[in-house]
Specification:
The complex is a heterotrimer of chains A (337), B (106) and C (170).
Chain A (H helix, E strand, L loop, with lengths): L7 H34 L15 H11 L10 H18 L17 H9 L1 H12 L3 H32 L4 H7 L17 H16 L11 H4 L9 H26 L15 H22 L5 H29 L3
Helix pairs in contact in A: 1-2, 1-10, 1-11, 2-10, 3-4, 3-5, 3-10, 5-6, 6-8, 6-12, 8-10, 8-12, 10-11
Chain B lengths: L3 H21 L3 H26 L3 H31 L19
Helix pairs in contact in B: 1-2, 2-3
Chain C lengths: L1 H21 L3 H21 L3 H26 L3 H6 L6 H22 L13 H11 L1 H22 L3 H7 L1
The chains are: A mainly alpha (337), B mainly alpha (106), C mainly alpha (170).
């Protein structure tokens, strides 16, 4: 209870504003990064016109998006349609509340941190479903059904992979999970073969499942442009579309942050000697490593079919995650005592 | 500071809403939702009791009742889907199994 | 602080419940239910049961409501058909019965006369709850897994026969 007490009236709004700023800046940076990295991989230049190397391109795009007319077509369920982007955005926004920034520093160090993240992010599916249903459009509805089926299915291997880490750390608090991985990169869960080799398998499963959770290629079926126009946000325009857009990039960053906290030590430096670099830099550096990895995978792999999607989840990832959980638990009991 | 009484009052009101909903609504889906409402009211009362008694038993009970609720929804909705396939409606009052399936009411 | 939160969450919970009851469209009802669930999760936070709050969010917000919405969309219930008959035939009698149940409960509550503050015991940390769950309640806990498996098999078996439709929903 004490995290809600104290200076909540002071710290609550400040934290909220800071998180909102981080999400906005993240979207600007990530979009630019995505366009530049993909251009580089395809031997193009990418945006070059506005500013040196086109760095102001996304800023201008954002202004354009805000100034655009907000169209609500006839036959749309207005209240639901208007509410959906806020639910999606709110859910991705709330996830950032437990980010551990440095030793003992996090907006809210919840006892149930990891579990809170999983619970809140499951609300994205509700928003997606509302958006798809209220649009009164077959593409949107199909996008939403796919998106929700995918989100709900991949939550299972994701949670199981996370559970392996929770078991190894003996805590659900993200802060404690970070502290446990101190002392150099060989102690990070995702790399520490001597600590618990099965965490490495969990790392892989977590990363694949998180790609599906944030609807990135090869799991971008909910918004598959070539089949579904734009999926659940086909009918959205202007500011509401911008909210979906922000939420999507925020989710990418959140998946990166969670991956780095759980498997790559969060704010822990690469080597103990590099302690002088502040924790947030390490955390965001690692998180953006994952963002770039997501972009790289998008440029490399084609999209899966729906049946392949379900096959990968239920017949590969879930049994794999269960095996990692059981073997990791046995290792914890037998080897570590 | 809310006391145990406040929580119980809230639970009673929620439970009453659930009962009324089950009685007055005709859509099978909404009736299932109202059953969920009642289960939640009971859970809230359990947790409040557990907290005031200083034990974790209320929480454990609520936890188990949540899993039961999840199972109940899964099976209940499957049955609703079956009813819909059989009679083309989720309206419980238009479903008459005796006398040949669904009856369209004017 | 806690009082304000309590009132706020209670209003949300009851409002959501009323929304479930009174709205025509089942989608709206489902969203009312979602509001109530989230508010009750907030109450669990106030009652020092953070783990249960997270379970509430993940089970109800992430699974039950989604399942409801999925089924509503799968059945594609037409709004106009629902409009004509939202309430049961003897609605007023039933509504009265519902209110009567409410009064009975309130009567029992008043006659019983519970009292006392809610924050009597030790705080319900995740660790303490885990200890309780896996020591004292370990058999019920294992039984729930059997129950969930049974529900899973039951739901699949019930809706199985129309294979082509069930296939793409997986």
């Amino acid at each position: 209870m004490d995290f809600l007490m104290g200076n909540i009236w002071l710290w609550g709004p400040i934290t909220a504003v800071v998180i909102a700023a981080v999400i906005t800046v993240n979207a600007l940076v990530s979009v630019y990064l995505e366009r530049k990295v993909s251009a580089w991989m395809q031997n193009r230049l990418g945006p070059m016109e506005n500013g040196p190397q086109g760095i102001f391109q996304t800023l201008i795009d954002a202004v354009k998006l805000i100034l655009k007319e907000d169209i609500i077509a006839r036959g749309i369920d207005r209240p639901l349609f208007k509410m959906a982007p806020y639910i999606v955005f709110g859910a991705s926004f709330a996830v950032f509340a437990v980010t551990p920034l440095a030793e003992g520093v996090s907006p809210a160090d919840l006892d149930v941190g990891v579990f809170y993240v999983l619970a809140i992010s499951s609300f994205v599916a509700v928003g997606i479903m509302m958006a798809g249903w209220s649009s009164n459009n077959k593409w949107s509805l199909y996008g939403a059904l796919r998106g929700v089926a995918q989100a709900v299915s991949y939550e299972v291997p994701l949670s199981l992979a996370v559970l392996t880490v929770v078991m190894a750390a003996g805590s659900m608090s993200l802060q404690t999970v970070c502290v446990e991985q101190g002392g150099g990169f060989w102690n990070w869960n995702g790399l520490a073969l001597h600590k618990n080799p099965f965490l490495v398998g969990s790392f892989l499963i977590y990363f694949i499942a998180s790609l599906a959770e944030v609807n990135r290629t090869p799991f971008d079926l909910p918004e598959a442009e070539s089949e579904l126009v734009g999926g659940y946000h086909t009918e959205y325009s202007g500011m509401r579309f911008a909210l979906f857009f922000l939420a999507e990039y925020a989710n990418m960053l959140a998946a990166g942050i969670l991956a780095s906290v759980l498997f790559l030590g969060g704010w822990q430096p690469l080597l103990p000697a590099l302690d002088f670099v502040p924790g947030p830099l390490w955390l965001f550096g690692k998180a953006y490593f994952f963002v770039v990895l997501q972009i790289w995978i998008r440029m490399t792999l084609p999209r899966l079919r729906v049946d392949q999607l379900m096959y990968v989840c239920w017949k590969v990832l879930v049994p794999g995650a269960l095996a990692m959980l059981v073997l990791g638990g046995l290792w914890q009991l037998m080897i570590k005592g | 500071m809310p006391t145990l009484n406040h929580y119980l009052l809230l639970a009673i009101l929620l439970f009453g809403l659930g009962v009324t909903g089950v009685l007055i609504r005709r859509n099978a889906l909404v009736i299932l939702m109202c059953v969920e409402l009642m289960l939640n009211a009971a859970n809230l009362a359990l947790v409040a009791f557990g907290r005031s008694g200083g034990s974790l038993e209320g929480q454990a009970f609520a936890f188990f009742s949540m899993t039961v609720a999840a199972a109940e929804v899964a099976v209940g909705l499957a049955i609703v889907v079956l009813i819909f396939r059989h009679s083309g409606s989720t309206d419980l009052e238009s479903i008459r199994l005796v006398g040949g399936g669904a009856r369209e009411e004017q | 602080m806690e009082g304000i939160l309590f009132v706020l969450l209670s209003v949300l919970a009851l409002g959501g419940g009323l929304w479930v009851l009174l709205r025509r469209s089942p989608v709206d009802s489902a969203l009312g239910l979602l509001t109530t669930m989230v508010a009750i999760a907030g109450h669990y936070m106030l009652l020092d049961a953070p783990f249960l709050a997270a379970v509430q969010l993940i089970v109800y917000g992430g699974a039950v409501i989604i399942l409801f919405l999925f089924v509503i969309m799968l059945l594609n219930l037409r709004q106009d058909r629902l409009r004509a008959r939202r309430l049961a035939a003897g609605r007023w009698v039933y509504a009265l019965a519902g209110v009567a149940v409410l009064f009975c409960l309130a009567g029992i509550f008043l006659a019983g006369g519970t009292s006392g503050a809610v924050d009597a015991g030790p705080s319900g940390t995740v660790e303490a709850f885990g200890e309780a769950l896996f020591r004292r309640w370990v058999y019920p806990f294992e039984l729930t897994s059997v129950l969930l498996l049974a529900a899973l098999v039951g739901a699949v078996a019930l809706t199985r026969h129309a294979a082509p439709k069930a296939e793409d929903k997986a």
